[in-house]
Structure formats: C-alpha cells, structure tokens
Amino acid sequence: MPRPMTPGAGRTALAPPPAAAPRRGSKLEIRAPGRGGNGPDSAYGAGGSLPRWAEAWTDTAAGRVLRVKTAPGFRDRLDLLRSRLVRRRERIRVAPGLYAVGAPGADTPVFVTANYKPSFDALRFALIHRDAWLLALDTKGVNVWCAAGKGSFGDEELLRRLRASRLDLVAPRSDLVLPQLGATGVSAWKVARATGRRTRVGPVRAADLGAWLDAGFVAAAEMRRVRFGLGERAVLIPREVAARAGLFALALLPALAFAWAAGFGAASGAGGAGPAALAARALSWWAAPAGGLLAGLVAFPLALPLIPFRRFSAKGALLGAAWAAAWLAATRLPPLESAAGALASTALSSWLALEFTGSSTFTSQDAVKRELRIALPLQIGGLTLALLALGARLVLALADAAGGAR
C-alpha cells in the first residue's frame, strides 16, 4: 500500500491543514446558480435546478462548484438500494469534477473518489460537519476498488481531473487524500512528484475518516485492515443474482429441448405426451443449470473461506459438482440428459466463482490472469460438451421418430 509522501522538490513542507477540522468561516461566497463555473457546473446546467444531493453553488477562483449535502436523503438511500438490485448500476453516478463540502479554503484537503454515486455518497456522508473538497474521477460509474483494478481510477485520470478542475487556483496548498482501496490504481509517490502536493492515503472505510482526521491523519491498524467477512460478501449477492437473472431464463431453452426430445416419439404415436409431463421433464433438467447458477451466485460467496482449494474456479467447480451429484441422484434422467446437466452445473458454478475474483479482497490481478488462462478453456469445454449432448439427444429423438413413422 502506498505510504503518504512528502512534497516534491521546490515546495516547502506544510503542517497538517487546519481546514480538516469542523467548519469555520470562509471568504468563499455561496449563492444561487448563475453563469460561469467549471466542471460540475456545466455538467448539471448553469442556472438550472440543483441536484437533490447539492445545497448551492460555491464561488472559487476558477469558477463555481457545487456544494454537496452531508446528510442522506430518501433518494440517496434509494440509489444505494438500486445499486444492489439493478444490472446497469454504473448508471448510478455523478458528473466527474470538483465539489465542495462545507466552506473549504485554499489549504483544505482534497478527497479523491470515484463518480459512482454510492462511493461518492459514502465519502460526503463521512465528512459531515467538516470542510473539504471532493474530486470525483471519471471511473465510468464504477466504484473505487473495481475501477482501480480496471485502470479507470489511476494516475492518468487523476492528473487529468486535477488540471480540468484547475485545482492550482482553487486550492493551491491542499493535500490530496487518496482512498486506500484505490492503491492498486494510483501511485501516491508519482502523484506527489507530478503535482508537488503532499499525498496522503486515507483509511479503508469512509466511515473512519472522522477519526482519521481528528487523529492528525494517523490511521489505527484497524483502519488499514480490509475486511471481507460474511456481511461484506452477502451484500453482493442480490446484485449478482439480478445481473445474471437472464441466465436462468436462458437455461430453459435446452430444458425445453430435452423435454421435447423425450416426448417426441410418444407424441408421434397414439395419445402423445401431455403438457404436464413435458413441463415436469423440462423442470427436472432445468434444475441442474439453475442449481449451478445458485451455487456460484449464492452458496459460493457465503461459504467462500470454507470451500477447499485455492483457485476460485476450482472452488466453484466443487460446489457445482456437488449439486450435480445430488441432482443426478434425485432425477435419474437418461445418460445424455444427465451428462449435459452435470457438465452445465459444474461449468456455470465454476465460471461465476471465477467472476467473483473482481469483488474479493483475496485475489491479485496477476493471479487472476493466470487462473483465467487455465479455467476459461475448461469451462468453455464443459459447456460445449453439454451442448453436444443436447444435440445428440435431439438427433436420436428425430431418428426414433423417423423409425416409428415407417
């Protein structure tokens, strides 16, 4: 993890900025929307209505910036709920740029965050009764942790956003405070050297910012510890299930094909197979991939530390295979249908577990890349064999029907 750096060459050291303390008076004027402004002003429309989470405009040497509220409202809570339940949560974002909390001055710290609204909200709520600048990077609506891994929360974007907000005019003596979870994307020492500003690394959780500031920018050991316990894993499940909901419906297609193949011969003869029997056969097979999906989306996050193996793909495959074994024992379908169901369950669970590496704090980028090179071909191979089994079953059904017709 990057450590706080001292100022670059040619810049005298600064004492910890006093403006991090609870709000005091400021010479900055706050007034209703008007013309001009930088960054957020143009993004939200000059002279237009303020966003629900903003209080007013703050005039600075470089133009106007929005002053944000520090108490959550109904819409903020709704946005947080939506971020857990909708597929396109990256749309829940704010415009990148500079924002004000309270009445910040020329030496008030600048807290860097993502423009994903729940991340932005967590930061501003943690700074209640404080003065601060907030700098939201353009992470395309992705949170700090994931954006750092993807590269959108990085040195290049941070430096570009500093120039765009004209921070040298707004807050020339301010320190930069980076989130610890963005350490994989931003090198504090590079930013300090490029900007000549003291660069600090805040605590893992925004909720600890108040204690960190009051302690003079000193983090207790607990503030540096990244937790990924049952609660942190469980809170991700609703969003993952919502994002993959289409897969449950997609799995019905081969289920219906197997049911059709099973009833094709009987349907071509006297009486045929009834709709209830065909639906029961389809649901019997559908339980295999659906169980594999639930194993990867629900069981895997909950039981992650307890599952044997180091690789996430192997952990997921084990859960999928366990479900497949229970399914085989319960359904006792013909060989081709059984093989396809077991392969689909195992491959889907393994793939979803591998996808969870992007949410986990247990992995590294290099290790994930190595695992992808090994696991993805095996997962694709398993699903391909399942589809081949489906094709073979359909061919046999057609052959049987043709023989019966003669």
Structure description:
The chain is of the alpha/beta class and 406 residues long. It folds into 2 domains: 18-226, Rossmann fold (3-Layer(aba) Sandwich); 234-405, no CATH class. It contains 17 helices and 8 strands. The chain has helices at 40-44, 74-85, 117-126, 144-150, 155-164, 167-170, 188-195, 209-214, 221-224, 230-234, 237-243, 245-250, 252-268, 275-303, 312-331, 335-355, 365-405; strands spanning 30-31, 54-60, 63-68, 97-101, 110-114, 132-137, 176-178, 199-201. It has an 8-stranded mixed β-sheet with strand order 1-2-3-4-6-5-7-8, sandwiched between helices. Helix 3 (117-126) links the parallel strand 5 and strand 6. Helix 15 (312-331) packs antiparallel against helix 16 (335-355). The protein is elongated and about 85 Å long.
